[in-house]
Amino acid sequence: MIFEESDTMDDKIRELLKTLPKIDEVLLVLEKDDAFEGVSRDIVVEKCRQIVGEMRKDILGSKKRGEKVSVPCSAVKAAREVRKRLLALHDYSLRRVVNATGIILHTNLGRAPLCGEALKRIIDVSEGYSNLEFNLDKGKRGIRYDHVKEILCCVSGAEDAIIVNNNAAAVLLALNALSEGKEAIVSRGELIEIGGAFRIPEVMEKSGAILREVGTTNRTHFSDYENAVCGDTGLILKVHTSNFKVLGFTDEIGLDELVELGKKKNIPVMNDLGSGCFVPLDKYGFEREPTVQEVLKTGVDVVTFSGDKLLGGPQAGIILGKKRILDKIKENPLNRALRIDKLTLAALEATMMHYLDLDRAVDDVRVLRSLTEPVAGVKKRADELLSILEGLSLKDMTFSIVEEYSMAGGGSLPTQKIPTVVVAVSSHSISPNRLERELRKLEVPIIARICEDKVIFDLRTITEEEFVFMKDGMELIAGVS
Ligand SMILES: *Cc1c(COP(=O)(O)O)cnc(C)c1O
C-alpha cells in the first residue's frame, strides 16, 4: 500500500487497520488447508486472535516507532503465521543436545547425563503404578525416601537420609527446621552466590534463620565462632565455597573443630557441600577434597549436596546425617512442599547402586568417567572424530587436533584445569560465530565453544555414540552454506 506524502500518519494507520482480517476469515483459510489436524478448534481460534492482535499492535506501534509504512494484512497472511505457530506446538522444546563445550557439569545443559539403568528404572517405575509410598511387607503406607535411604546410608556411613527437590531446597529446609528464629553462625568467607541467583544470605533470610556472620572474607578464626555462640544460636553452618577460591592470606576453621564446638555447646552443625562426591578424586590427579564419607566421619549433624553435580544422578537435594536431627527435618511442613518425585527417586536409586563399588562408579557414572578419563582416551576419540569429519570432504572446511583444557563446571573444582583434546574447525566461507550459531539450530543441536577464532569440539564431553550427530550436523551445515 503506497501512501501519498500528504497523508497524515493517522490516516495511514487507519487504512492499515482496515486491512486486519476477521478471526472467521482466518479460520476459513485454515479450514481449507486442513490446518486443524491434531489441534483442537479452541487452540486454533486463540492462536488466530493472538496473531491478529500482534498485527494490530505492529500497525499501531509503527506510529510510535515513526516508521513510514507498515505492510497491509490479510487473512492469508495471518493464516500462514497461525499455521507456523501451530506446527511449532508439535515440536519438542526440551531436547537432547551434544555438549561439545568440555564443561562436564554444565548447569544450562542439564548437568549430569543419566546412566542407562536410571533411564530404565524411570520407565519401569512410571509406566504403571509403583510402591512409592506403600510398604509392601506391611501392606501399609510407606515413606518415599526409604527407597534410597538404605543404600545412601550404606555408602556414606550416615544414620539417616532425606531427599528433596534440589540442594537449594535441602539448605532451605534444613535451615528452617533447625534454626528458624534463631541465629545461624556462618563465616563471611562462605557467604557465597552460586549461579541462578542462589545466595546463601538470601536463602537464610527466607528460611527464617537469622544470619550471624563471623570473621572476615579471607580469615575466620576459631574464636570468632566461639564468641558468636550464645543462647540464641540455633546452628553452626559451614558452606563449601564451590565456585571460587580465596587465595593468599587465608584461614578457615576445619569442620572437625566446628563439630567439637557444636558438641561442647550442644548446637547442631551443618555442612552444605554443594557438589558432594563419594569418590576420592585426588587419586585421579585432582586437588584433595574430602569425600561425603569423610565429611560424615567428623560427626557433623547434617550434610547437604546435589544429586546432579559430581554424584552424576538426577536433580535432587540429598540430606544425610544424625537420625535425631533428620527426624526434626522430616516433621517440617516445608518437607512436603519440597518433596522429590517418583521419577527422580527411581533414577537416584539406580545411580546410587553404582557407588556400592567405588572403583566401578568412576567408569559407570558418566560425569565421573568424563572427569577422570586419561587424556589418551580423549585423544583417541578426537582422532576418530577428526577422521570422520575429514572423510566427509566438506567444502571449505578443515579440521585439526588441538590440546586444550576442560572444566568440571557446576560449581565443582573451580580452579582445576583438566587437560583435554579438541577438534578445531577452520573455514573460509563460514565465520566461527556463524558456525557456532548454525550448530545450535540443528535438530540435535551441538553446543560448542569458540577458541582463538575457531569453533572447537571438546571430546571430553562427547561420546562415540554422539559422533553420528556431529557427522550429520556438519554435513548439513556445509551443504547449506
Ligand atoms: C550447587 C550448590 C547449591 C545448590 O544446589 P542445587 O542442586 O543446584 O539446588 C547449594 N550450595 C552449594 C554450596 C552449591 O555448590
Q: What descriptors fit this protein?
A:
binds pyridoxal-5'-phosphate; 3 domains; alpha/beta; Aspartate Aminotransferase, domain 1; seven-stranded mixed sheet; 481 residues
Task: Describe how the helices and strands are arranged.
Blueprint: H1 9-18, H2 23-32, H3 41-65, H4 75-89, E1 98-99, E2 103-105, H5 116-127, E3 134-135, E4 140-141, H6 146-156, E5 160-164, H7 167-179, E6 183-187, E7 193-194, E8 198-199, H8 200-207, E9 210-214, H9 222-228, E10 233-239, H10 255-265, E11 269-274, H11 292-297, E12 302-306, E13 317-321, H12 323-331, H13 333-337, H14 342-353, H15 358-364, H16 366-372, H17 375-391, E14 397-409, E15 418-427, H18 432-441, E16 446-447, E17 449-451, E18 454-458, H19 467-480
Parallel strand pairs: 1-16, 2-14, 6-9, 6-10, 10-11, 11-12
Antiparallel strand pairs: 3-4, 5-13, 7-8, 12-13, 14-15, 15-18, 17-18
The structure holds pyridoxal-5'-phosphate.
The site of pyridoxal-5'-phosphate has 15 residues, from helix 7 and strand 11.
Task: Explain how this protein is built.
This protein has helices at 9-18, 23-32, 41-65, 75-89, 116-127, 146-156, 167-179, 200-207, 222-228, 255-265, 292-297, 323-331, 333-337, 342-353, 358-364, 366-372, 375-391, 432-441, 467-480, and strands at residues 98-99, 103-105, 134-135, 140-141, 160-164, 183-187, 193-194, 198-199, 210-214, 233-239, 269-274, 302-306, 317-321, 397-409, 418-427, 446-447, 449-451, 454-458. The protein has 481 residues and is of the alpha/beta class. The chain folds into three domains: 9-89, no CATH class; 98-104 and 371-480, Aspartate Aminotransferase, domain 1; 116-364, Type I PLP-dependent aspartate aminotransferase-like (Major domain) (Aspartate Aminotransferase, domain 2), CATH 3.40.640.10. The strands form five sheets. Strands 5-13-12-11-10-6-9 form a seven-stranded mixed β-sheet, sandwiched between helices. A five-stranded mixed β-sheet has the order 2-14-15-18-17. Strands 1-16 form a two-stranded parallel ribbon. Pyridoxal-5'-phosphate (PLP) binds at residues 166-168, 171, 194, 198, 239-240, 242, 272, 274-275, 306, 317, 411.
